[in-house]
Structure formats: structure tokens, C-alpha cells
Amino acid sequence: MAGTGRKYQHHPVARKREIVEASLRAGASVALVAREHGVNANQVWAWRKLYEEGRLGVAGSSQAGSNTLSELLAVDVVASGQASRAVAVSSGTLEIEIGSTRLRVTGTVDPVLLKAAIAALRA
Fold it and tell me: What is the pLDDT along the chain (123 residues), one digit of tens a residue?
């Protein structure tokens, strides 16, 4: 079978990140976001995977246009004597220390917002 006439589109990393972030908003449908941006929903799912791996850069950073992997952070899990077991299970608490700065997250948090907060702490 000779050429199918199919053309591959090359999207800038910033555009991929914009589409992925739109698909991550509360109540967003990947299919609708893909249609609105003129791309296939399967492509958006693939970009979401890259985004979650940190391979689409960080919005607003000097690395925004690169496909570098995110740096890993060391995490220590420390038991808190202030909360009972039932409270810890039902509310969920995450504490992150970066240098002398501590970030405590309680309850359900938007992953995109958490990633942005960690990036701000590291800056």
C-alpha cells in the first residue's frame, strides 16, 4: 500500500502542556478537550503520561521548552503524635521538607496545584 497521505503534526511542548493542563481541570473531558484543540484523544492521553513523568517541562520555568526528566526529591515519612489513626486515615496528610521549608498538605489536593507548589518551594 503506497502512502496514505497522513501527515504527522509536530506540536510545541508548550502547546502539549496547555492541552494536558486543560484536560486535568476538574470536570474536564479528555475527548472534549482534544476535539477543541484539534487533536486525537489518544494523543492527549499519551501527553498526559509524559506530563506526569515530568517530561513536558514546568510552566513558566526556564526549562519549559525541554523534555528533561524531573529531579527526584528525598521524602521522609514521619509519624505524627498529634492525630489519631482514624483521623490520619480519613483526612490524609502529606508533609514535604525542602531545605528549611516545610509544606504540609491535608485532605484531597489537585495534583497540578501540588506540583506547582513544590516547584515554587524549590525555586
Answer: 566 667 788 899 999 999 999 999 988 999 999 999 999 999 999 999 999 888 887 654 434 344 444 455 666 666 555 443 333 334 567 777 777 777 777 777 777 777 777 777 776
Q: Is 52 within 8 Å of 69 (Cβ atoms)?
A: no
Handedness of CA 105, 111, 113, 116 (dihedral sign): positive
Please check whether residue 44 is in contact with residue 19, taking contact to mean a CB–CB distance below 8 angstroms: yes
d(CA 63, CA 25): 23
Does the pTM of the predicted model rise above 0.85? no
Report the C-alpha gap between 111 and 123 in whole angstroms: 18
Report domain extents, the chain. 8-69, 71-123
Asked if 117 and 96 count as a contact pair (C-beta separation under 8 A), the reply is: no
Round to whole Å and give the CA distance between 118 and 98. 9
Write out the three cell numbers for 1: 500500500
